[in-house]
Specification:
By secondary structure, the protein is of the alpha+beta class. It is built from 5 helices and 7 strands. It is globular, with a radius of gyration of 16 Å.
Length: 191
């Protein structure tokens, strides 16, 4: 759940206003390959190679789920096509990485439109993606923050802990043999 505090810093260490004001830049060739794989996930078109950019112990955190490990990340993104017929990335720009962050961090500002029915847009989401990478260039942490607003977690006290636990359960539930039914229930609650 995004923080309601407009001054709370996001994963980039900035307020939403500050991260939205960052200058854009061209991605390096290595970053472009990573962004292309990530884009497949957001377009509801995951392939096995889409996940080659992650370490086996990578973490994915967004307002809906918290996936700890590659299997749960796969379950999270492989579940999207069960909910949406398609998704389009309407805008994607790479942002200048603030000097307080390692140069290996990639910041992406994107607008994604999700379609429950192929020709009817359901919702457009603006988000800040913070992609943290290891020395080999693989993603160790992928954070998505809607409208650049800080995503709450266990460091936010009791309610943050409950929120993160709920998200973790959501990611684990998608691994269940009954995941199609569960994804439909989640979908009905979200939209």
């Amino acid at each position: 759940m995004p923080s309601s505090n407009e001054n709370a810093v996001n994963r980039a260490g900035l307020t939403p206003t500050e991260s939205k004001a960052l200058p854009t830049r061209e991605p390096t060739a290595e970053e472009k390959k990573i962004i292309d794989h990530i884009s497949e996930l957001y377009k509801c078109k995951p392939t096995n190679s889409s996940y080659d950019v992650y370490t086996s112990k990578a973490v994915f955190h967004d307002p809906i789920g918290f996936a700890d490990g590659l299997d749960l990340i796969k379950a999270q993104f492989n579940g999207l096509p069960k909910i949406f017929d398609k998704a389009t990335i309407d805008r994607l720009v790479v942002l200048q990485t603030p000097s307080a962050l390692p140069n290996s961090t990639i910041l992406v500002d994107q607008d994604v439109t999700y379609y429950r029915k192929a020709d009817t847009p359901t919702k457009t989401v603006n988000s800040l993606l913070t992609l943290e990478r290891d020395a080999q260039g693989k993603i160790t942490r992928h954070t998505e923050e809607w409208d650049h607003k800080r995503e709450t977690d266990r460091t936010d006290g009791f309610f943050g802990y409950l929120n993160e636990s709920r998200k973790s359960l959501t990611a684990k539930v998608t691994l269940s043999p009954r995941s199609s039914l569960i994804m439909l229930l989640i979908n009905s609650m979200l939209l």
